């Protein structure tokens, strides 16, 4: 019962944090210190050519991109860093709630979070971060070299130099070889689920 109460409290607090962040950060251009009163997100299709890059999972094992995400499953991907106090906790909590909404269907999805601060985000830190948000087996966290992280950020056109200038973005793809859907801004867990359903229904 205590665990249930704690879980409900955590979700309530996360919901409050999401509402506050959505009110503070615009969907298009901002940094950690900007203020804006227009929450939401913009959706567009995009084609990305991913470079070959080796990253490290939270368990310390190596992962080769893009083959790591080319196993045929739908992919939902974002970029975060563990010491972020504004954008990343909101994105990660949205992912956490999204996986809950998926239920058993989560096993058919590959969720990916790539660190944009690999010098600080060791596998151990990523593992702790993943535990903090209750990441399931389908949700993997990656770190690695700065070069590899930047290469992937640039491939997704989400590299802004300093980590403090990064923007809230989520990327979805139904299957290898298909176009990505780029969501710029804060999509709620329900909106993520809606976008996911729309994506897989079109396959």
Cα distance spanning the termini: 42 Å
Outline: globular
> How are helices and strands ordered from N to C?
HEEEEHEHEHEEH
CATH superfamily: Glutaredoxin
Let me know the largest β-sheet.
8 strands, mixed
Helix content: 25-40%
CATH fold annotation: Glutaredoxin
How many helices does DSSP assign?
A: 5
User: How many domain regions?
Assistant: 1
- Estimated share of beta-strand residues: 15-25%
Computed over alpha carbons, the radius of gyration is: 16 Å
The average pLDDT value, as a whole number, equals 86
Question: Which class in CATH terms?
Answer: Alpha Beta
3D structure, described in words:
- The chain has an eight-stranded mixed beta sheet with strand order 1-8-7-4-5-6-2-3.
- The model is unreliable at 1-39 (pLDDT under 50).
- It starts with a helix and ends with a helix.
- It contains five helices and eight strands.
- By secondary structure, it is α+β, with helices and mostly antiparallel strands.
- The protein has a single domain (40-201), classed as Glutaredoxin (3-Layer(aba) Sandwich), CATH 3.40.30.10.
- It has helices spanning 2-24, 87-102, 123-132, 146-155, 189-201; strands spanning 41-46, 53-57, 62-65, 75-80, 110-115, 139-144, 169-173, 180-185.
């Amino acid at each position: 019962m205590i665990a249930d109460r704690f879980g409900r409290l955590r979700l309530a607090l996360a919901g409050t944090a999401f509402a506050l962040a959505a009110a503070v950060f615009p969907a298009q251009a901002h940094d950690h210190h900007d203020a804006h009163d227009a929450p939401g997100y913009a959706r567009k299709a995009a084609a990305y050519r991913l470079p070959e890059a080796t990253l490290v999972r939270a368990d310390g094992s190596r992962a080769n991109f893009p083959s790591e995400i080319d196993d045929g499953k739908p992919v939902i991907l974002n970029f975060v860093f563990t010491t972020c106090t504004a954008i990343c906790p909101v994105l990660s909590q949205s992912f956490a709630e999204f996986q809950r909404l998926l239920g058993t269907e989560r096993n058919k999805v590959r969720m990916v979070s790539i660190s944009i601060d690999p010098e600080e985000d060791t596998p151990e830190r990523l593992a702790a971060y993943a535990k903090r948000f209750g990441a399931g087996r389908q949700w993997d966290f990656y770190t690695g070299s700065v070069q590899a992280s930047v290469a992937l950020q640039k491939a997704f056109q989400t590299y802004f130099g300093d980590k403090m200038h990064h923007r809230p973005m989520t990327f979805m793809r139904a299957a290898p070889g298909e176009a990505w859907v780029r969501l710029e801004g804060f999509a709620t867990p329900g909106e993520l689920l809606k976008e996911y359903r729309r994506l897989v229904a079109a396959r």
